[in-house]
Specification:
The protein has about 150 residues and is mainly α. It contains seven helices and no strands. It holds the Pfam family DUF441.
């Protein structure tokens, strides 16, 4: 029952508790429940390959919910583009989406990098009172950084 992966998850659970990172604690609890009921071998590989896409879908739904509820409409969209800050936000949104795309690529190619990204997020939340936006953007930034470093090292 208490193999290395369970102990590692429990350690991350404790860190998540002290960092007050509910998303991390819920994720670990789900994984531990799957392990306890011995359905981990079938589901973990599926979750690993499809989970990021599920998360992106859930985030997209959350972002589109104000449009669906009528809270944001075409009037708000046209009014927003009259502000220079809206243009900065537009470019920033595009940049973040491109970084996240690189993050998906990196996490698919090198899933063990997730551990360092989660640890970095936990440290930032607990030490600097940062906001946990998840490993996807962190992976995107890491991907872009690795590409830049690779460009200069060649």
């Amino acid at each position: 029952m208490f193999n290395e992966s369970v102990l590692f998850l429990l350690l991350l659970l404790v860190i998540g508790f002290f960092a007050k990172n509910n998303s991390l604690m819920i994720a670990i609890a789900v994984l531990l429940v799957l392990k306890v009921f011995h359905i981990d071998s079938k589901l973990f590989s599926y979750i690993q390959t499809k989970g990021i896409n599920w998360g992106v879908t859930v985030i997209t739904i959350a972002v589109l919910a104000p449009i669906a509820s009528g809270e944001i409409g075409f009037k708000d969209l046209t009014a927003a583009f009259k502000s220079p800050y809206a243009w900065v936000a537009l470019v920033s949104g595009m940049a973040v989406a491109l970084l996240a795309k690189g993050g998906v690529t990196l996490l698919a190619k090198d899933p063990q990098i997730t551990t360092a990204l989660v640890l970095g997020t936990i440290l930032s939340v607990s030490i600097f009172k940062g906001v946990a936006v998840g490993p996807l953007i962190g992976a995107g930034i890491a991907y872009a950084s690795m590409k830049m470093i690779g460009f200069f090292i060649r």
